[in-house]
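Next comes a single protein record:
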Amino acid sequence: MGFEENTSFCVSMFFDEMEKKFEGKHLVVVFDNAPSHRPRIVHERKNLTCIYLPPYSPELNPAERFFEEIRKSTANQIFETLDAQEVVIEAAVRNLSEDGKKMKKLLLYPWIKEQVGRG
């Protein structure tokens, strides 16, 4: 399977799982403008709207802020194994994910609030 096909497959699986979790709801997904985030499958879904960020705009991408926080958990450390590093990363992701207030503060940019009608 080539890169494009693999990416389309992964994106399709991601959307399948989201549709299961949020059955009957219209989903809005924010993607950066990477070519791999523009597979045809995105346009074939009826209950899905994709918002694409302008190129070269990491300051608009909430995922960048999330990953920045995760990187802090491993900064200035030397890990004996990849497994040891993975444990720290998993704990950081879990801690952030379970703190709704912190996630909103970190990721709910004003332009997102406006788009979803919470502005």
About this structure: The CA atoms of residues 32 and 63 lie 9 Å apart. The chain is about 55% helix and 10% strand.
